[in-house]
UniProtKB/TrEMBL annotation:
Alphabetic keyword roster: Oxidoreductase
This protein's name: Sarcosine oxidase subunit alpha family protein
GO terms, molecular function: oxidoreductase activity
Xref: SUPFAM superfamilies: Aminomethyltransferase beta-barrel domain (SSF101790), Folate-binding domain (SSF103025)
Region (Disordered): 1-23
Pfam families in the cross-refs: GCV_T, GCV_T_C, SO_alpha_A3
Amino acid sequence: PTPTAPARPHRSPRAEAPKATAAEEAPMEAVWLMPQGAPVKLRAKAWLDYQNDVKVSDVQLAAREGYESVEHTKRYTTLGMATDQGKLSNINGLAVLADALNEHIPQVGTTTFRPPYTPVTFGALAGEARGEIFQPLRRTPMHDWHDAHGAYWEPVGLWRRPYCYTQGGESHEKSVHREVLNVRNNVGLLDASTLGKIIVKGPDAGRFLDMLYTGVMSTLPIGKCRYGLMCNENGFLSDDGVVARIDEDTWLCHTTSGGADRIHAHMEDWLQCEWWDWQVWTANVTEQYAQVAVVGPNARKLLEKLGGMDVSKEALPFMQWADGTLGGFRARVYRISFSGELSYEIAIPASEGRAFWEACLAAGAEFGVMPYGTEALHVLRAEKGFIMIGDETDGTVIPQDLGLGWAISKKKADYLGKRGQERSFLTDPDRWKLVGLETLDGSVIPDGAIAVAEGKNANGQRNTQGRVTSSYHSPTLGKGIAMGLVLRGPDRMGEVLDFPKIGGGSVKARIVDQVFYDKEGAKQNV
């Protein structure tokens, strides 16, 4: 077939471009209010700031009231103070102000624009806080060891702590029971590195701590420890922990794991805002040291096998501390107990934490050493009737409610919270106070359960007379134990309370002493 001939290019005829004459226009006139010359009633409905409902009449009133500075007008009217930071309103609003002041706009000026006046991305605001790093997770020096040995993790503030260590196919509950019994019968290791550690130092440090704690810390001898309570200004219990006197003007304050940053900020707040002329310096050294609790009847044998320090009862009595070397590691050994057993808490430099932990495991193998987690820690302390901040406290509880009046000095003129605790509703004898609770059938009361009373209130709900603050199965005692706040609880020993369960039925529990195990403290003082 004959090939198709290429198409010829199309050529359009040349033409002249159209011409037009521009209309004469005067310079654009700035119009900030429509209609111009609107009367007062209309100006009171002419909106400038659509978020804060600022009207033309508001800005004109500000000018008449003498707020001639744009920054003053902004605060008087809230013009441009909404989330758009004036993006939609400020130019119009400032022009209205200039007109009301008979000034040119440049002479009146503008306010300071803040983000997000100039838009930013959500990514810039969030930064790296996304996914697993939404908040930076804090890990102890022994974290990887725990992870490799069956740790079931529990969030404690930003820390991750082992709840328990599972072995084989056992449940978490069985793991906890095994760990508790091993501490009671042999020796357990607890990673206590998350415990808050705050150094308080200076000529006025003792005076400062006497104001901060309900007890007296300034008289604490060097080398000894003392349990202390901190309250807020209203008198409510905020934190507790053991304080150690390091030297003439240095103390080390232990806080709850989740409270170190909060308590350090609390200290600095009072130092910087109220007692700014006191010579006191604080440092949060929580992450500078690993801390290992060696707990149980074989604890001393384990440390003696490591060697290097005399940890006998005579050389290191209960509630004292000593510096030295254990198994070649630099160590500060505190003779304190949160379990009621013979116990030592050893602080070592964080860089040596894991090595020391593994050395303890090796030395304690013949004594039945076993790591234990936070839940076993809770059971152990509940068996001894020790309180836990956040369990027995909720921001409405004072030390006197918990039977901790002995930790409040009768000699000091003042401390933070003293006047708050003197208010009538906090001295009321009908407050709920801490007791032990023992179920009649040995079961475990649901945590947080409410004890009901006779009658109903104005809303038709049953009256209440207490609540459970901590509840566990005690493998040591073979039954359920609990602590709770009960109306005049210590005066009602032996009474039986009724705790309704969700879904029907109830649990009956007798009010008993909160110390379920070794009330005399013989086990921890050996």
